[in-house]
Records
---
Amino acid sequence: MYTKADLKTHLSGMGIRPQGSLLIHSSMKAIGDVENGADTVLDAFIEYMKDGLLIFPTHTWHEDNNPGGVYNPFTEPSCVGILGNLFMKRAGVIRSWHPSHSVAALGKDADTYTSGEELRNTPCSREGCWGKLYDRKAQILFLGCTLKSNTFIHGVEEWNDVPERLTEEYHHYKIVNEKGQQLDYAQKCHSKKYGDVSRNYDKLLAPGLHEGIVTIGKIGDATSYLCEAKALADMCSEFLRKDPQLFLDDSPVPEKWYK
């Protein structure tokens, strides 16, 4: 059974920068048996990142979310995992006001990092929380999951104007603010024309490993991948310039593009 001290040792061994910005996609069950469960996992991350910025996705894009089209960032459960759901209830955590692709953050600049999402009109805008990962030279950890979970790459496709990744029409929401008022909001959504293209995002693993952008390690029992956000986005953007529809199938990225 893993302890908090064990997990903090694993985080250091992965090369996570404790004073940096870290976003975590996670599978709690992949970690294995942990003393006191998910709360200990969160305690380990929070203590390790006490001088940095810790971020979890708290998405609400699922059809069961936002009943009546109303997104309440203070109460709406996330559809992407137990750790994010528990994390956003911790003291001091700030959740962004994005009705489909919110994040929750704790630590250095959490308020400025999460602010302004109600001013965006796409899932992963360059000026929003997902684009700010690039500006902050953040790290993205895939804790017991693969790069298929990489919401950041949805953003990279969006910023590169890849055709037919966003809907033409706008989806309308109401966002509940801290005063209980409902703010009108409209955004384009991810297009379903080609299904879920993220199923092919893991083709970035081989070139990422080759370029030193991705490293592999273990946290508990969980095989985990740590990515450098800026370098990953730059590499992916270069690939998309060669083939804007790179992620429509699972064929490997041509080795000549990066070797």
---
Amino acid sequence: MSKESFMTMSSAASRVRRSEEEAAVGFTASPSLAEALQQILVDLIELHLQSKQAHWNLVGSNFRELHLALDQIVDVARDASDTVAERMRAVGAVPDGRSETVATHTTLPAFPEGEQDTTTVVDLVTGRLRATTHTARALHDTVDREDPATADLLHVIIGILEKHAWMVSAENRIV
């Protein structure tokens, strides 16, 4: 048997052993996968909070429609953060959604305090939706290399966030 054939067989046997071990104990996220998912989680939680802040303090024309749209975004962000956090637990990572963690680690800019007119809110929320999507896209390849199943969850989340960014941004679009 050639050295090359032996190395191929040895590598295959090693993959089988790893596969058997994984089946026995379950897939466990590496620190880099856990860190990527944590960053996505933090931005989703912040998106939820900022969208609710916008919802409460919205004023101006087309108030009702935007007020209701913001509640949909709040629900989407909350559900997505729950999906990511529960996936983290499923793969042996520990999610951290504490307020100080979110405030310290989010990539989203701070939301202004006080009342905000509808035109401003459209731009602010669209920016936050796009920033959250950017985080998920930027970390997608890291996630996909290690865990394609989790990457599939991110595909769905990205699609939903981009749809809401398009829908909200259309409010300020002049044709």
---
Amino acid sequence: MGLGTEQTERGLSVLLGRLTDGFSRLVTQHLTLARVEMMEDARVMGSNVARIAAFVPFVLVGYAFLCAALSAFLARWIGWDGSLALVGAVNLVGGGVGIARAASRLKSLQLMDDTSQELNRSVTALAQTPAPAVQPATLPQEANHGR
């Protein structure tokens, strides 16, 4: 009897050790994936923010030049105040559309999407896997001796 109990205890400690090693490896891999994904997300967000910042000077310069040129041209028919308002509105709308497009790209960006999916898969797999049951040691059955 002592032999079966000893083997079960050794097997259980080995299984527990493997489970601990596997779990620590899983956590380490999730942290590594999260770090890589955060760096990639930061790079993409930085690129989109740079695009927004790149449109700002064009909006300002375009506003200034168009105000001057179109206002001078339109002042003949609608006066200086009407021509300045019209030119300013057109430039603001154009610049606003460029900034809105870049901002919508930032909003649609899902941060750490791969990491959260992998973490959800791991949690689901761990929740569905039943814990290994410890089987009691069985003794060989004795012959019925003719009964």
